[in-house]
């Protein structure tokens, strides 16, 4: 089974898929990812949290062997239902040793059988048909070639196994990237969703999986603190590498948008999750 690669301009500096950059800069420590998590957790308007919503879609009792690719800080595992049985085997994997360590710490507080490994989703160090469930939470758009990543995930899934892959749509955080466009002359809101998003992801998944379902998460951000917005923006390019003058302009634009909204910056969220089953 081959996966068709979606169109992508690899010269675009806002498509963060370089493995060295991801391992050493973007996810070398927990700080940048945590800053982004804070914005969502602090200003989300949904009556249910993102992670609680994700867990509500998973039938945990159906799986014996679970793999998470791109485990990050492990915050996903803090929302495990209290009634969950703790007998399934969980393997956490990430490019970054710091992320593997952090996610192991979180998961081991809730589960008995957890191991971690530093690994690239495009070259997973596991035997064929090793897992019943693979979780890819907001990470497949970072893969240098999502076609290769999906082929690897499909390889390690057992026949009938499920891929649980959350991602973003083209409107996700549109207002934040409009702010950046004022300063840098470019916008990046569609770049990651073009790689593996709610539309492009379905096209790729349908080439190697069956029963591909998309579940949309209903949410919005209402940001009231300029510092939190700045902290989010400066964790990724182009704001990550901004000069002092660009940072001044960026802050001024954020402050203007907050004032314009009577003290609130309203930010669109366009996100959800694919459930895709490997054919039996």
Would you mind describing this structure in some detail?
With 280 residues, this protein is of the alpha/beta class. The chain is built from 10 helices and 9 strands. The model is unreliable at 5-16 (pLDDT under 50). The protein has one domain: Vaccinia Virus protein VP39 (Rossmann fold, 3-Layer(aba) Sandwich). α2 crosses α9 (226-233) and α6 packs across α10.
SSE blueprint and pairings:
Layout: H1 19-26, H2 31-43, H3 50-56, E1 65-69, E2 89-94, H4 97-107, E3 114-118, E4 131-137, H5 146-156, E5 157-168, H6 174-184, H7 191-196, H8 200-205, E6 210-217, E7 220-223, H9 226-233, H10 244-260, E8 265-268, E9 271-277
Parallel strand pairs: 1-2, 1-4, 2-3, 4-5
Antiparallel strand pairs: 5-9, 6-9, 7-8
Helix pairs in contact: 2-9, 6-10
What's this model, at a glance?
This protein is an alpha/beta fold. The chain has helices at 19-26, 31-43, 50-56, 97-107, 146-156, 174-184, 191-196, 200-205, 226-233, 244-260, and strands at residues 65-69, 89-94, 114-118, 131-137, 157-168, 210-217, 220-223, 265-268, 271-277.
């Amino acid at each position: 089974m081959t996966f068709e690669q979606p169109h992508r301009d690899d010269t675009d500096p806002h498509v963060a898929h370089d493995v060295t950059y991801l391992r050493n800069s973007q996810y070398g420590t927990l700080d940048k990812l945590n800053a982004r998590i804070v914005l969502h957790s602090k200003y989300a308007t949904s009556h249910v949290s993102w992670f609680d919503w994700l867990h509500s879609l998973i039938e945990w009792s159906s799986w014996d062997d679970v793999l998470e690719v791109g485990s990050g800080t492990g915050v996903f595992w803090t929302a495990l239902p209290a009634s969950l049985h703790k007998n399934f085997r969980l393997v956490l994997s990430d490019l970054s040793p710091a992320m593997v360590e952090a996610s192991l710490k979180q998961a081991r507080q809730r589960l008995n059988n957890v191991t971690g490994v530093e690994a690239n989703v495009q070259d997973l160090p596991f035997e064929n048909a090793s897992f019943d469930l693979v979780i890819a939470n907001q990470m497949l758009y970072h893969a240098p070639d999502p076609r290769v990543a999906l082929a690897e995930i499909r390889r390690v899934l057992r026949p009938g196994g499920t891929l649980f892959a959350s991602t973003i749509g083209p409107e996700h955080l549109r207002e934040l990237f409009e702010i950046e466009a004022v300063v840098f002359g470019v916008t990046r809101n569609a770049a990651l969703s073009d790689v593996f998003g709610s539309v492009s992801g379905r096209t790729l998944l349908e080439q190697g999986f069956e029963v591909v379902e998309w579940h949309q998460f209903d949410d919005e951000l209402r940001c009231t603190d300029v510092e939190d917005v700045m902290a989010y923006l400066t964790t990724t390019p182009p704001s990550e590498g901004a000069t002092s003058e660009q940072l001044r302009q960026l802050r001024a634009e954020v402050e203007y948008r907050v004032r314009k909204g009577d003290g609130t910056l309203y930010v669109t969220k366009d996100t959800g999750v694919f459930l895709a089953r490997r054919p039996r």
